[in-house]
């Protein structure tokens, strides 16, 4: 994915860019900034750290894969059917952004079986230990109600990002840009200048 972003920068003829990434996109931003620091002028990493994570995604994948897509009549019906397995309304709404309508009915935009098969790699820390530390301005923005950026991650963040700042977005969980969109945009604007 970092190679795809690099190819896009080349296609757009952008020598450098500010990069923002959330969760898996944050891992992409971490890797891109360290592998190609000359192309990344600033990096904002949203609610992820350069660390391994435990697997708590299986119940979400189970619920999404169990949704009877062929019998769905509406997105509201899908939301109602997922409520028991995924009680957090904001999380359901976020996940249901991947439910799309086609001429044949509803389908998932994302490849759920591939995500399940590759989950161990997705949960692993980015392979960045062989790169020198990133010297550019870096902001790790953590959700107050999230456990994705914890104090035990601070040493790894500091080891890989010389000028990293860690900031907590109050009232936000892991999907901080969904939970607190205005505060997220304000933090991004302040950081990116």
Description:
It is a single chain. The protein has 10 helices and 6 strands; from the N terminus they run H-E-H-E-H-H-H-E-E-H-H-E-H-E-H-H. The chain is an alpha/beta fold and 193 residues long. It has 2 domains: 2-51 and 125-192, 3-Layer(aba) Sandwich (Rossmann fold); 58-119, no CATH class. The strands form 2 sheets. A 4-stranded parallel beta sheet has the order 1-2-5-6, sandwiched between helices. The longest helix has 12 residues, at 24-35.
What features would you highlight for this structure?
193 residues, alpha/beta, Rossmann fold, 2 domains, 4-stranded parallel β-sheet, two-stranded antiparallel sheet, 6 strands, 21% strand, globular
Brief overview, please?
The chain is of the alpha/beta class and 193 residues long.
For the CA atoms, what is the radius of gyration? 18 Å
Shape: globular
Report the span from N to C terminus: 26 Å
Q: Return the string of H and E elements.
A: HEHEHHHEEHHEHEHH
Question: In which order are the strands of the major sheet placed?
Answer: 1-2-5-6
The biggest sheet, with number of strands, parallel, antiparallel or mixed sense and barrel status, is:
4 strands, parallel
Beta-sheet strand percentage?
A: 15-25%
The CATH topology of the largest domain is what?
Rossmann fold
In helices, the fraction of residues equals 40-55%
Could you outline the blueprint of secondary structure elements for this entry?
Blueprint: H1 2-12, E1 17-22, H2 24-35, E2 40-46, H3 58-66, H4 75-82, H5 89-96, E3 99-102, E4 105-108, H6 112-117, H7 119-123, E5 134-143, H8 154-160, E6 161-169, H9 176-179, H10 181-192
Parallel strand pairs: 1-2, 2-5, 5-6
Antiparallel strand pairs: 3-4
Helix pairs in contact: 1-2, 4-5
